[in-house]
Amino acid sequence: MSEPKDPAAPLADWLRARYGEAIPAVAAQNDTLRSMARHRTMRHYLDRPVDPALVRTLCAVALAAPSKSDLQQADIVIVEDAGQRAALAALLPDNPWARAAPAFLVFCGNNRRQRRVHELRGHGFANDHLDAFFNAAVEAGIVLGTFVAAAESLGLATCPISAIRNHADEVAKVLTLPPHVFPVAGLCVGWPSGFTAMTPRLPLAATIHTDRHDDTALDAHIAEYDARRDAEKPLRARRRDDLFGAHQPYTWSEDKARQYAQPERTGWGAFVRRIGFRLD
Question: Domains of the chain (ranges plus CATH)?
Answer without folding.
Answer: 52-194 (3.40.109.10)
